[in-house]
What we know:
Blueprint: E1 11-14, H1 20-26, E2 33-36, H2 37-41, H3 46-57, E3 60-63, H4 77-90, E4 94-98, E5 101-104, E6 107-113, H5 119-136, E7 141-143, H6 158-169, E8 172-176, H7 177-187, H8 191-197, E9 203-209, E10 212-213, E11 218-219, H9 228-241, E12 246-249, H10 257-273, H11 293-296, H12 306-318, H13 323-331, H14 342-345, H15 347-364, H16 366-372, H17 374-387, H18 402-407, H19 411-414, H20 418-433, E13 456-460, E14 465-471, H21 473-478, E15 490-500, E16 503-508, H22 511-521, H23 526-536, H24 544-553, E17 557-562
Parallel strand pairs: 1-2, 1-12, 2-3, 3-4, 4-7, 7-8, 8-9, 9-12
Antiparallel strand pairs: 5-6, 10-11, 13-17, 14-15, 15-16
Amino acid sequence: MALIETRSFGCGVGLRSPHYPVVTEEWPEMDWFEAISENYMDTGGRPFHILEKVRQHYPVALHGTALSLGSSDDLNPQYLERLKRLDQAIEPFIVSDHLCWSGIGGDHLHDLLPLPFTEEALRHVSARIMQVQEFLGRRILIENVSAYVTFKHSTMTEWEFLNGVAERADCGILLDVNNIYVNSVNHGFNPKDYVRAVAGERVLQMHVAGHTDMGTYLFDTHSKAIIDPVWDLYEQAIGQWGPISTLIEWDEDIPGWECLSEEAAKARKIYAAHADQKQKINDVPRVSRRDLGSVMSPQKLSDISLVEIQETLGALIEKPEDASIARARLDAVLNPQGGVSGGERAAVYAGGLPARFHESLTEVYDAVLRILGPEEFAEMAHAYTYRYPSHDYNLNHAGRHLPEFILDSPKISDFPFLAELARLEWHIWEAFHAFDGPALDPAGLAAVPAEAWDGACLYFQPSLRLMKSEWNVFELWFARHSQDTPRPRQSAARILIGRRQDQIRCELLDPAQYFLMEGLLKGEPLGRVCEDLAALQISDDTPVSDWFARWIQDGLIQRCEFLPRKSGKSPRSGRPQKAKA
């Protein structure tokens, strides 16, 4: 596999949901877009369809945050399969991820966690990158990450480690100059030396972003405008290597499109100034691959392995009750930073997990948030983080167990309906992202004889959900954005949740229609379900044909199969008529 030949796609920005309307309706001037892989590879709904539309107008790069290339766990085969499927569907000009790890022991910590710069780590991560590239059938790019700790037993500089991995794995580099600047301040090196030392022929994309000054360290938040020293580093890099595809990253406190475009225009001005510049890669002095042990004088440690480091840092993040033990162990491994011990500085990572869980839960459970209020919701999210560790690489799945968490919590006595409301919101989230297929074409049913319908088995779209509740949760959900919140009350409800194209449908069903659809979802043939419905005597008039026609019209049915007809009298109750089907 050869390196990507084209490295000059211009200046782009991240594709973020607040800008969907502008991008897909106005098609603004922008060279390309970068999409976060996990936001699109696990959804068959609106986000994926938006990305498809954008890809028809612009080049697209895929950038992952959860491949966890440095983890001691095995690579996730499901992740790789879904990434490959997205790669084949979108045909991005670049696929990238981070030179870090994100989980250990089957738990996902949803952060970009640092590696020690050792030969063991270099061998490990290089082998995994080669495995990913072989599976995808293409080269990927690895990004240098911001870090808040350094390891006492590192035997090389960060840039040597980056160069070494790229060389050994034969992959490309996504150089983030903001991360270089953040680390230079946090760890005390000259950022210009870093840029000069990078293997320029492997740099195929660059990131430029903002950060937050926390006083004793810089924090890579991507929530602010880019500062001048970061722009200076970018200009140094472009001056060294010529124009390289550049992304403006802004992931938190996302501004309006105009502000983001202005930042991209600043990058484009620097980029354009070197547009005619020939590559000067061979003229740039670089650090060679060598053992820097004698130069860096790493502290000799007693055979501490990569997996032991990851398990200890993972315990600090996931188990607050064991935090003091984990900090003490990390003090022996990590260098002091900003006047505090390495174990204390590592607490920066511990604080990130509940914050990310809170953000994820807020996106899914806005009706629950409305009921509880921000403070109580935040307290609940914090407790939930440690009760249900995440076993999924996609943070959007972290809220799966919130309904049962609420059911077992003291809040259920004050809000007896809240678990049911949360269950409804989770079903809605699942429906929004489900991988629906083509809807049933009614023309294919025209030749079906009337007597065959008793054996009809209907297969509904994956987005379809049914739910019963003894509370008015549908009413509470429907009013979640209104000024007046209805009073919770006991009121039996049968709810259908699904999706019509990219729009969520959520509606109340009468008992007969719910019973019929519930039976069909279980795989029962139509005739048998109609027999059972008639025996219940719920209603003298059950317009099954009308319901069936509407389900087809709304695209709820994927296909219809017919069981062989048995001899004897067939049930007649409510069989659909061909004309209405």
